[in-house]
Design brief:
The complex is a heterodimer of chains A (152) and B (712). Chain A has five helices and five strands; from the N terminus they run ββαβββαααα. Chain A has 152 residues and is α+β, with helices and mostly antiparallel strands. Chain A has a five-stranded mixed sheet, sandwiched between helices. Helix content of chain B is 29%, strand content 24%. The longest helix of chain B has 28 residues. The chains are: A alpha+beta (152), B alpha+beta (712). Chains A and B meet through helix 1, helix 2, helix 3, helix 4 and helix 5 of A and helix 5, helix 7 and helix 18 of B.
Chain lengths: 152, 712
């Protein structure tokens, strides 16, 4: 059936099975490949998107659950006001392979929207779900702090 | 070793709109007296492909440079970009040597190209293998542009200089590169272009070329390839290793599932084609396929027993002095048996390949560490000549060795051929973890005898490790990947005996980041620490006394100990452990500060001193140290692949844990660059982590750690 939602600020309708995870609706039906597949069971959060501002693992969200809601993906991150976070990621030289970074950025963006100047403990709690195998955690922490500073 | 022969190629032809220069390197014939340096992932024939073609074995392409008429420059880098950043380092070197500002440079990853021999990234070889050739290509292009300008001005080339993408001479307006392209294209490349001295090098201080696309979602990885009319494929897999496909039932119900386009049955496979990956997975799980045979008897315990039983049958890999006599006559002898598990690579981007077969041609898009190996394997699977198969490079969402095997590309090629349309085959995470290609399981039996002064007078290391190379059809003799890090024990012990057995087991193996050193450094560095404890000696001093002839080992060890405050008081319940190891031409020492929290190891800090001789981009090297430590720490704590009834027990991140954000230790890095030849960087910081951690835990508990992983 057809589901209508707001995707990166624009209205989007998609005719697909209700239970199709948002991850695959975005990647395979809408060709927004910035949202990454890592595990399919909500363990790695590479597929983090915002649904009405809340970070969610898109592999665990059925398409039908976003009907009428606003979805932000990495492709819409700059327009959503997260450009300074993306800039901090580049300045701090965070990405290595880069696969998990869209998820890392959107998870950090949700934290910074809620807590403009997070301490280490808050960063730990917020970022714990998102896995990276390349060892970018230390630079992610630095980039979150530098993005917070840029907005203070 | 005599130098390699370098041949410059001018690829653009006279009067072209762009000047294209590259070079092909023909390695010097091997010196029979020289011990070859392992380039583990690079130097073999392709699996299943018979002997290598002459071009593949004999030549290697460097980067190549395209100077466009609009003054921009494209640098084409044949190395894979899997996060290590070496493509950026090579681009910086090339831009600097050419004399062009980096903002006018576009970097592209090279497709497989039959003109240029082998393209393969592994063995920590990108910079040490390509730095000099890349530099030479920049110099050759610069010399041609200079010659073109000099001819136009009717001056000697020596009267010209190159700066900011233009050629300069006294009394003339500078000529930008673009204005010289047509003239330079008529020239023969110089065969020995003068290189800019390293001391005059001024590399651009710019973010890595790939970062912006990796933070805005536009970077194209293997899974992100989208081709018109493409469908997504999932393959039926046997639940038990080694099974053959038996009967296939009525497929009508699966074909009727939502999103399913077709079900394809080949000679040895069944695959679902669907409108999206999820529908392909869902339908694949419902396929009525029966499986026959398989290694139902295979268990971890059985592998352990096979390795233990094989220990006495090992071939001698090193035999200095007479270890058995010394062991028999010594008053103090320590014996220990260590066991390291199978490990999966688990790159964050699951495996995939996209293939379009059209008649007698095919196109492949894949995140691969070896485009040329991928092309050879796809061509063989499709029954096409290699030149009929194009392999397009993408970013790799992690490699760690896994992506140098082309199995997933071969599968996609077979499906695409049967489908008659573009197909993207996607592996789920479960398929990745259960899909074989593991770091070998190994068992190690060690004995050492201590002399009156506490120093070892004999060292015997018998190891049993299934052979990676035998599985590639390159068996015969000792698998050098199984003894690296063991046979080259650096310590000055009068009698050293190392034997290696390779029990045959039906489990697919492959190169895992740092390969044999990943287990052998753990064994040897834990055992030397146990000997130090037996001798009542400090672990750092004990090692240093045995490293008199190994100055680079000793240097990184001393610096790491000093930097970490070795011997200074630590917080209550914390302990230091240390390890030092040489691999891939680099030397690395680490000091780990660890504690036990409710019995579970917690790493607080890792101090790492790495000596790769030289570095191009220190920032990227530091990132690789972090990467190696996270990778090794995940493996030391939780990494294991268990077998039960022929099934792989682990399946996804819930039962195959990797390090999370709040578990990341502080990492302090020092690089030693005293001008020795380039060593590798992507792997050498991996091996010391596990032994340094285990040595810290031994201090905390009083019990040696002789089995990995530490948790579970």
């Amino acid at each position: 059936m057809s589901v209508t939602f707001t995707l990166n600020g624009a209205s989007q309708s998609l005719d697909a099975p209700d239970e199709l995870p948002l991850l695959w609706a975005l990647r395979d039906h809408l060709n927004l490949t910035g949202t990454k597949f890592g595990c399919g069971i909500g363990q790695c959060w590479a597929c983090t998107v915002h649904v009405d501002g809340v970070p969610m693992a898109a592999c665990q969200v059925p398409l039908s659950a976003v009907a009428g809601k606003a979805v932000t993906t990495i492709e819409g991150a700059t327009d959503a006001g997260f450009g300074h976070i993306q800039d901090a990621w580049v300045t701090e030289g965070v990405p290595q392979c880069g696969w998990c970074q869209p998820g890392q950025i959107l998870k950090a963006a949700a934290l910074l929207s809620r807590v403009p100047d997070p301490d280490d403990a808050a960063i730990d709690v917020a970022m714990k779900p998102v896995l990276c195998r390349c060892g970018t955690y230390a630079r992610i922490r630095a980039a979150i702090k530098s993005a917070a500073e840029a907005r203070s | 070793m005599s130098p390699s022969r370098r041949t410059f190629l001018q690829l653009s032809g006279a009067g072209a709109l762009a000047l294209v220069v590259g070079c092909v390197t023909t390695p010097a014939p091997p010196d029979p007296d020289e011990v070859p340096t392992p380039r583990t992932l690079d130097d073999g024939p392709r699996p299943g492909a018979g002997p290598p073609a002459a071009a593949d074995a004999g030549t290697e392409l460097s980067a190549w440079v395209t100077v466009h008429a609009d003054d921009t420059v494209t640098l084409t880098i044949p190395e894979a970009e899997m996060g290590q950043g070496s493509t950026h380092a090579l681009a910086l070197v090339l831009a600097d040597e050419l004399g062009v500002p980096f903002e006018r440079v576009r970097v592209r990853l090279a497709d497989a190209d039959s003109r240029f021999g082998r393209q393969s990234t592994g063995g920590s070889s990108s910079i040490r293998g390509s730095h000099d050739d890349t530099r030479a290509v920049g110099a050759a292009a610069r010399a041609m542009l200079t010659a073109a300008a000099a001819a136009r001005w009717q001056v000697e080339p020596g009267a010209c200089t190159v700066k900011d993408g233009a050629v300069h001479t006294d009394g003339q307006e500078p000529l930008p590169f673009g204005a010289l392209v047509a003239d330079a294209s008529t020239l023969e490349p110089p065969q020995d272009p003068p290189l800019k001295p390293i001391s005059e090098r001024s590399l651009a201080d710019v973010p890595r070329w790939d970062l912006r696309s990796k933070v805005d979602g536009t970077a194209v990885f293997g899974l992100d390839v989208r081709v018109p009319d493409m469908v997504y494929a999932a393959l039926a897999r046997s639940p038990i290793l080694g099974q053959r496909r038996g009967g296939v039932g009525d497929l009508a119900a699966v074909r009727a599932m939502p999103g399913v386009v077709d079900v394809i049955t080949g000679d040895d496979f069944v695959a679902v084609l669907a409108r999206d990956t999820w529908s392909a997975f869902q339908a694949r799980d419902q396929l009525p396929v029966t499986w026959e045979g398989g290694h139902t008897e295979l268990t971890t315990e059985g592998v352990r027993t096979a390795c233990r039983d094989a220990l006495p049958t090992g071939a001698v890999a090193r035999d200095d002095g007479d270890a058995s006599v010394a062991l028999a006559s010594a008053s103090r002898v320590l014996e220990a048996t260590y066991e390291a598990p199978y490990l999966a690579h688990v790159p964050m981007e699951p495996l995939s390949a996209t293939v379009h077969v059209q008649g007698d041609r095919a196109e492949v898009w894949a995140a691969t560490q070896s485009p040329t190996r991928a092309r050879a394997a796809a061509a063989e699977a499709l029954g096409l000549p290699e030149d009929a198969v194009a392999v397009h490079a993408t970013f790799l969402g992690g490699g760690f060795g896994r992506r140098s095997h082309p199995d997933y590309i071969v599968e996609a090629a077979k499906i695409a051929k049967a489908a008659g349309r573009p197909v993207q085959l996607v592996w789920s995470r479960e398929e990745d973890i259960r899909g074989g290609r593991y770091r070998p399981f190994s068992v190690h039996s060690l004995r050492a005898a201590l002399g009156p002064d506490g120093k070892p007078v004999a060292w015997e290391h018998r190891l049993a490790c299934p052979s990676i190379l035998a599985g590639m059809g390159r068996g015969g003799g000792i698998d050098r990947t199984s003894i690296e890090g063991a046979a080259n024990l650096p310590y000055g012990v009068p009698a050293v005996r190392v034997t290696a057995a390779a029990p045959e087991l039906p489990v697919s193996l492959w190169f895992w980041r740092s390969v044999g050193s990943s287990q052998n450094a753990w064994v040897t560095e834990c055992f030397i620490d146990e000997l130090a404890a037996l001798a009542g000696a400090d672990p750092v001093s004990y090692r240093l006394a045995l490293l008199a002839d190994k100055p680079r080992h000793a240097r990184v060890l001393k610096r790491a100990a000093a930097r970490a405050g070795w011997g200074s008081p630590l917080p209550e319940g914390h302990a230091h452990g240390v390890a030092v190891h040489e691999s891939f031409g680099s030397f690395c020492a680490q000091v780990v500060e660890a504690s036990l929290e409710g019995g579970t190891p917690r790493v607080h800090k890792v101090t790492c001193v790495l000596d790769p001789g030289q570095v191009v981009t220190p920032d990227a090297v530091e990132a690789q140290v972090h990467s190696s430590i996270v990778y090794a720490l995940s493996a030391a704590l939780w990494g294991r692949i268990d077998l039960d009834g022929g099934r792989v027990v682990q399946s996804n991140f819930h039962d195959h844990r990797v390090l999370r954000f709040d578990e990341m230790p502080e990492v302090d890095v020092e690089l030693v660059t005293e001008g020795e030849p380039f060593g590798g960087v992507g792997e050498p910081p991996t091996p010391p982590l596990a032994p340094a951690l285990c040595n810290a835990l031994r201090v905390l508990t009083g019990e040696p750690v002789r089995k990995l992983p530490l948790v579970g």
